[in-house]
Here is the input.
Amino acid sequence: MINPLAKELNEVLSGSVVDALMSDMGQRLYFPNGIIAQGGEAAKDATLANGTIGMAVANGTPIELESYKKLMPTLGPRETVAYAKTAGNPDVRNLWKEKILEKNPDLKGKKISTPILVPGLTAVLSYVCDLFVGENKPLLAADPSWDNYELIASARRNAEFHQFKCFENGKFNIPGIEAAMKADAEKYGSVRIILNFPQNPSGYSPTKAEAKELCRIVKEIAESGKQVLVLSDDAYFGLNYEDDIEPQSLFAYMADLHENVLAIKADGPTKEDFAWGFRTGFITFASKGLTDAQISALTTKFMAAIRSSVSCSSTVSQSLVLKALADEEHNKQKVELRAMLKRRYDAVRAFLNTHTSKVLEPLPFNSGYFMSFNVKTGNAEEIRKKLLAEKGIGIIQIDANTLRVAFSSIDEDKIEKVYSEIYNVAESM
Here is the structure.
């Protein structure tokens, strides 16, 4: 049975692309008029005493242990130990929206939601799947891809997990992507696809020409009357090492591509700003023709997913991100660290340009943290184990034929040695 509050949200969304794409769980989600909602009202009007939120407060300020306070001397208790709002600190959300617009100039003049703050980019993917993926609503992703995609779609949401071959004949496989999307559109009447660039595990980002082709495919499917959810997993956004890479997120182009396209952007400071353990991610969405009321209703659905799982994200992380983004040195420091990653990329590229292997074939890569090998003969797991046991080198086996190397975590002066050992071990198998 659907709660009356969920019915109200569904009525607002009725007839929209969101309505057409929503899962059964998405239909059921609502934000209760309970503790959080009533606490919000009290925060405005309870002038004598506010006995709504389960925090210990003295003289209107959350109590903070000195053992915590001394570790965070520049932050006040409301920035550390107090509960955060369900959708995140409004100042952080608005500032992140400004940053998205700065980094994606093609979004100028387009209506996008205010980013919703969640505990990490994995949470973005999980909540998007909660709302839009399920039985007869499969998720489509690249092959190879990050293993968490299948775990979230299949194990959590009981959905089919479909894949398209990411590369063919040493090139980004546009025809394969198009065929897979059109097959899903024909069979299910809609498409739900993750486009992850720079890609994990391959470290590939599309060229400007390839990005245009992806937009063409999505628009053609939308124009045929099918709905398309395009989730841009931008975890590694901006870490580009070649000049011909499309510099903007695909979200910038999908945001108003067609009324049948729902664009969602997953991003955050995790990889972009080298803040892995902060677990701070953002959900931003857009679709041509969505009204303000519908954007608000979908935001509330996401808030319901957050409230019913983790309740809210870490206050400390949000406070640190807010202050760091406002720091004049922030971007300069990012540039320096990105230059370090570029040097590591160049060192890997130099090795691969001067070495060949009968066993290992590098997949195309030009960005991000990783590069991967296709194992042409033998077994990827056996190579991984031998490297670890005999050489003390750890890499990841993605599947039976794919090995991933995170050059982001290998010091530049070790790259020649590490890759030499990878080749030597593979050839000895």
